[in-house]
Amino acid sequence: MTSTRSKRIKTILGYLITFLLLITINFSLPRLMPGDPFIHAGGEAGEVITFYSEDQIEYLREYYGLDEPVHRQYFSYLGDTLTGNLGFSYYYNQDVSQIILKRLPWTMLLVIFSTALSIILGIILGSYSAEKRGGWQDRAVYLVMIVFSEIPAFLIGIFLLVILGASLGLFPLSGGVTHFTVHESIWSQIIDILYHSALPIMTLTLSRVGGMYLLVRNSMTTVLSKDYIKTAKAKGLKKFRIKYVHGLRNAILPLITRVCLQMGGIIGGAVLAENVFSYPGLGTIMTEAVFVRDYPLLQGIFLVMALTVMGANVLADVLYQRLDPRTKAPVINPKKTSVCETTAEKEFN
Amino acid sequence: MKKLTTFISIILIISIYVLVFAGCGGTETGEKKQPEEAAKGEADQEKSDDEVVVRLDTNDEGYPQPFTHHARGPGRSKMRLIFDSLLERGENGHIPWLAKDWEVSEDGTEYTFYIREGIEWQDGEELTAEDVAFSFEYYQDHPPVDISEPVVFDILEDIEVLDDYKVKMTTERAHAPYVLEAGEMRIIPKHIWEDIDDPQQFTDEEAVIGSGPYKLKEYNEEHSTYEFEANPDFWGPKQKVDVLQYRPVSDEVMALENNDIDQAEIPEDVLQRFEDDPTYEIAERPGVWAYRLRINFDNVSWLNEQKARQALAYAIDRENIINTVARGAGIPGNMGLLPPDHHMHNPDVPEYEHDPDKARELMEKADVIDNNEEVSVEIIVGDDQEEVRMAELLRQDLREIGIDLEINSMDSQARDSQSKEGNYELAIMGHGGWGDDPENYFSIRFDDAKEGTGIYGGIPGYENEDVDLIREKQREELDEEKREELIKQVQEIWAEDIPEIPLYYVTGHYVYNKDVYDNWTFVYNHHSIDQHKITYLDRDDEIFEEDK
Fold first, then answer.
1. Residue B522 class from Cβ within 10 Å (0-12 exposed, 13-18 middle, 19+ buried)?
2. Residues of B in contact with A41 (CB under 8 A)
3. Most buried of A153, B95, B378, B407, CB within 10 angstroms?
4. Residues B525-543: b if buried by 16+ CB within 10 A, e if exposed
């Protein structure tokens, strides 16, 4: 009992240290980037940019506290962050937390839906492949999945945009809603939002489903060869029941870990997809913030993203324990997943 | 097992929250509009036939008031739809706007503006000389975003309201372009702004009350959309566009073809697609945005030799750069600096057509290359493809005359910082403002050279007494024609002395759907077709008479 408690304390301490490190990196990264938030001398072709005079730059630096020594900036940032104050954006002239709160739901919408879809698709296709292991169906699905998972998300996005959006006209080309319209009911509004998010979600799902598929396919293959499956078959249980109840329950563990651990990748993909579709989420505003070196906004966005990833890790920790009583240790053994993957890959080859 | 259910419910709650939140975000803006919309409902439908709605591409450009819009053309132009200035840029020169006339004293230190009578702010109050004086004073205390000409405030000594429609500004010295520069400052209503201490955080509805032809109807920050509608009580020329809608698009070409937007800037490669379609009209952009090759005289000693710089001018094949990098959409750099599209351009300066033999000859005369050893020089460029390709072409050209160019490509922000600090040998930089008053060229390039200030950091180490002399003279020369003579002279000096090399002036094409709106126009000395308000106004109005 005491050993579990001390382990738990260790885990929590681990997360705390990670969080502190994270905040520090968060503070230094934007400042390590070359450039200055108030100097944009060159511009995109055709753009005329307003220049600040020396006096104005000085005034702005003072106004935003950038004239103070770095360590003081760091501690005031630390203090502000811990009290929930994310600062004031130089470029957007607004509280960073406000900007983020307005955009976060859009990104979460993409992330949650595409994660759910890629899990479902991964499970269905993966168990199908496992069942037809070695057959042509398995090879065909495998090939398609590998191809999709190797293409970068933004390329898939552009591809979908050109084919489904522009050529076939099935989906809107950009944005999160139909602008300048009034909806009769909340339902038509929700449908409008889903309609606009269809292409970005598809993009993200396609770029993620490959990994899920591979994992399910491999662990399912292992599970399906187990004795209890044979028993189940011998009992004359229905195929569906064998596959999804007896098989899946045992094959799903690595999948859950993977989903949680890959949260970072999914969010990164969302950033790219949003930029392709001019979708109103965090990704679009992040690119802009990088371009104009808006330190507080960058810090805010990075913080939220990093916290999401960390949260997902905690979730993985906890979920894994609940789902698999054999895992007593609160920290996930990273080997577990990798072993699973490598043996699985070996098997196929 | 109990905990598991807890977790599942947490996940469920999160997803529901996201859905509802996303839904609510939209409802808010939707609901805001509803009462107005419902009231107008039928009337709207009736007149929708002749209502002109123009839809354009945008990014988020901030709240369109003078202190919060973003520091770029598209942000500035949206703010300017709402706010007027004393003068406005017309197609051929500045035209009287809020000021119907002005006088300049003989010594050039007193400027009297006569304000039009009967102009109303969008909230019904009258605009008077008080507001004009107030705006300038307010800007002196709170610098707005849109302050490209800080000199206006540096030399402004006193501002005096003579009567309701007459305001006099006194400056510490004569400044030839003063009327134009002060004429561009937006006038803000005193009765709204006098109590505002922190204008950067002033984002109420009142903050976007101006005297201009358009009112802000809706700004949605998270979607980056703007809707402007014609101000029915506007004092000036009639609006030709009733509603202006801005939204972000993923790709301008696809959006234009899909009728999501009605006008776009189209890359040369795909222009063909619109050429044969009778729905679309194509307009060529004037070249007042340019790339220049900057020289740091302090860091490269051999370039202090005039002949060596002339050799560079001959060696660089600017036509080839345009064809390769810009697919033909450009005008070769003119060694007199001012672009051919500038109203004070001197067409008689030497052209320095590509001539490697002559360049080599000049290099020999300049005595730069000893013992056939290669001269090496570093160039810094931004990281976008165009600039890198430009640098590669330069390397080819310079190799021909025995110069080894070392390319150092970096993030464009880093390039900007380095060049401001003078930390470079050669640099490529592209920016706008080439259509501005020549005084701007002097201050950007030659003022800063000595003081080491300014956004571009000037031309480090460059000195030319003749240029300085003309600069002094033209600044105080109030006679337009005599001043133009001086500016033409200085272009000759520049073309011989080559303080920097303009590579090319970027042109390009706008394509618009003429069935929707076909009244687009350019203003003088500016590259854009949509970033000024007169393009949306009736130009048969008498206010434009002088402009023709």
1. buried
2. 416, 419-420, 429, 431, 455-456
3. A153
4. bbbbbbbbbbbbbebeeeb
Residue A76: CB partners within 8 Å, gap ≥ 6?
A65, A68
- Structure confidence at residue A347 (pLDDT): 37
Say which residue, B366 or B87, is predicted with more confidence. Answer: B87
How confident is residue A87, by pLDDT bands cut at 50, 70 and 90?
confident
Arithmetic mean of pLDDT over chain B: 86
- The pLDDT of B218-231, averaged and rounded, is 93
Which residues are bridge partners to B330 per DSSP?
Answer: B506
b/e per residue A119-132 (b: at least 16 CB within 10 A): bebbbebbbbbbbe
List pLDDT tens digits, range B258-302.
999 999 999 998 998 899 899 999 999 999 889 999 999 999 989
Residue B6: per-residue pLDDT: 53
| Pairing verdict, β B99-104 and B110-115 | antiparallel
Interchain contact, B432 vs A48, CB within 8 Å: yes
B476 contacts B173 by C-beta, under 8 angstroms = yes
Q: What angle do CA B149, B150, B152 make, to 5 degrees?
A: 80
Q: Answer whether A3 touches B (CB < 8 Å).
A: no
Among B535, B533, B544, B542, smallest CA distance to B211 is for B533
Task: Look at residue B537 and give its three-state secondary structure.
Answer: strand
CA distance A346 to A349: 5
Let me know: does A269 contact A241? Beta carbons within 8 Å: no
- The mean pLDDT value of chain A amounts to 82
Question: What is the length of chain B?
Answer: 548
- Of A49-53, A94-98, A136-140, minimum mean pLDDT range: A49-53
- The whole-angstrom distance between residue B115's C-alpha and the CA centroid of its chain comes to 27
A108 touches chain B (CB under 8 A): yes
Please tell me the distance from the alpha carbon of residue B184 to that of residue B146, in angstroms, as a whole number: 10
**DSSP assigned state of B505:** E
Q: Please name the residue of chain A whose CA is at the shortest distance from the CA of residue B147.
A: A50
Residues B470-518: tens digit of each pLDDT: 988 998 888 889 999 999 999 999 999 999 999 999 999 999 999 999 9
Q: Which two tokens stand for residue B413?
A: 């922000």
Residue in the block written with tokens 């109005």: B541
Q: What residues in B contact A278, CB-CB < 8 Å? A: 248-250
> B198 is written with which tokens?
């922190």
What are the structure tokens assigned to A200, written together?
């970005």
Q: Rounded to an integer, what distance in angstroms lies between the CA atom of residue B186 and that of residue B88? A: 10
> CA nearest B453 in A: which residue?
A54
The pLDDT, as a whole number, for residue A326 is 66
Do the Cβ atoms of B140 and B153 come closer than 8 Å? yes
**Rounded to whole angstroms, what are the CA distances from B67 to A293, B126, B160?**
19, 22, 24
Q: Does B416 sit within 8 Å of A173, measured CB to CB?
A: no
The answer to whether the CB atoms of B414 and A35 lie below 8 A apart is yes
At residue B422's C-alpha, the angle toward residues B417 and B426, to 5°, is 100
Reply yes or no on whether the pLDDT at B2 is more than 90. Answer: no
Chain pair A-B, CB pairs under 8 angstroms: 214
The CA distance from A255 to B386, in Å, is 44
pLDDT at B452 over 80: no
Q: Are B52 and B43 in contact (CB under 8 A)?
A: no
pTM, two decimals, is: 0.82
A276 touches chain B (CB under 8 A): yes
Beta bridge partners of B407: B379
Nearest to residue B337, comparing CAs of B291, B382, B384, B270?
A: B291
Q: How many helices (H) and strands (E) does chain B have?
A: 17, 19
Burial class (CB in 10 A: 0-12, 13-18, 19+), B113: buried
DSSP for A164-231, written as a single string = IIIIS--S-SS-SS-TT---SSHHHHHHHHHHHHHHHHHHHHHHHHHHHHHHHHHHHHHHHTSHHHHH
